């Protein structure tokens, strides 16, 4: 968290910030004089806690100032601006009930309602923002906003789990916020959800991808409705997305044996980390992230069956529980593993590790570079790529007569049937035997 607007005085942290031009009248000192700067104790000696409290104050002030400078036009209201207005007057929600005789309370009520009024005077209805501020002052429940929903969802551990998921989440919420702003949850309607879908469609996004965007938003609403006890329907529930299910899925082409041999030949000619990764993918059928994120401790070259341990590590997690497995090394995968063990450091493929200190490992960047090399060298045509090795391995195993459940174990797919959850599963020797049936090492490789 950025530690803005804080200053230490003695053992206590203070908040210091200049008031936005044009908003000085919102903040007054004890004598009623407008303030151009704010300075007050955060009542803590802990810097992290001080930064959090200062950040909360700043958010409320930003909302208040933005609302004031826009003259509060429109029907939309901002709860943070209402809280900021109370804070600027030295008040809190519910103080209208707790301190009915307070001078500060009387002054703010007159400002919000346009008073003072004499008995029998006509009292115009306050604007929506002033009405919300007055309602909070008088003890009404604080309305929850979209940002509140996101904070609660993340606090419960339901937020994005990795960098890629975070990017998808941020893109989806950027689209929604562009439509609604940080709206009160009960003000978000089905109309907004339909506009969300339509806005994505106008960008040329497919129905299937739009569904993924919706999935980044809908669960957050589910969390908010349940945790805040809102008692409203989820506006993103069962949305109609025209064309969903009718679009032809992207065809993933497999590699012919002659194409595999050409790839293996070039990998051995270039003989570097990136080519070792391609070779390992081609003869294990493992997912791209599973391979490029391997550490040397995940590689077992001793014993009767050389193999890799595909398991969560500091680089990356796994797609599902079935993904954690042992995959024997044969043919080009074994050659690649032996070569990769000659690199320095703890990572099997250090070339894919982030260069900047503190940066997050991103397997997608490796995928882009490796796919580009295959295409630039005429080794992959349209529809072929790294993931095609996974499809190709299934075909090779199937053609060799390897049973379906053995294929699923090698690839880390979920098996069907209750009995599949019993016992230890196939031995690594059995998996090794299956992969040896399809091992087609390059000429002069020395690997049988």
UniProtKB/TrEMBL annotation:
Residues 248-436 form the Tyr recombinase domain. This is Tyrosine-type recombinase/integrase. It comes from the Bacteria. InterPro entries: DNA_brk_join_enz (IPR011010), Integrase-like_cat_sf (IPR013762), Integrase_catalytic (IPR002104), Tyrosine_recombinase_XerCD (IPR050090). Pfam families: Phage_integrase. Belongs to the 'phage' integrase family. It comes from Paracoccus nototheniae. Coiled coil: none annotated. Transmembrane segments: none annotated. Keywords: DNA integration, DNA recombination, DNA-binding.
